[in-house]
Amino acid sequence: MLSVKLHLCNGDVITTTLTPAQKNRLSRTLNQAVLPLTPFTLHAAGAEVEIPWRTIGYISSEPLVRSEVQAQEAAD
Fold first, then answer.
1. Strand, helix or coil at 68?
2. Helix, coil or strand: residue 28
3. In what order do the strands lie in the sheet with 13-18?
4. Chain centroid, CA 60 distance in Å
5. How far from 55 is each of 14, 42, 43, 52, CA to CA, in Å?
6. Residue 57, C-beta contacts closer than 8 angstroms, at least 6 positions apart
7. Around 17, how many Cα atoms within 13 Å sit in the side-chain half-sphere?
8. Element containing residue 24 per DSSP (H, E)
9. How high is the pLDDT of residue 76?
C-alpha cells in the first residue's frame, strides 16, 4: 500500500491510501492529453469526495509503514 498525496492547484493536499496499481492508473490518467469529464471520486474521512481532474496539479507517494514494523524497530 502507498500513502498518496493529491496536490491540488489551489494549494490543498489530500492524502489517501492506494495500491501501486491504483496509483499507476491515477498517474496515467493525469498524463493524458484530454482528461476525463467525470471527476475523480475518493473516499476520505468517511465522506465521498469528487475532485475535477483539472484541479489535481500533481501526485506524490511513499510506502505506507505499518505500525507493528515501527514498534519492532523501536524495540530494537
1. helix
2. helix
3. 13-18, 2-8, 56-63
4. 7
5. 12, 14, 17, 6
6. 7, 8, 9
7. 6
8. helix 20-30
9. 53
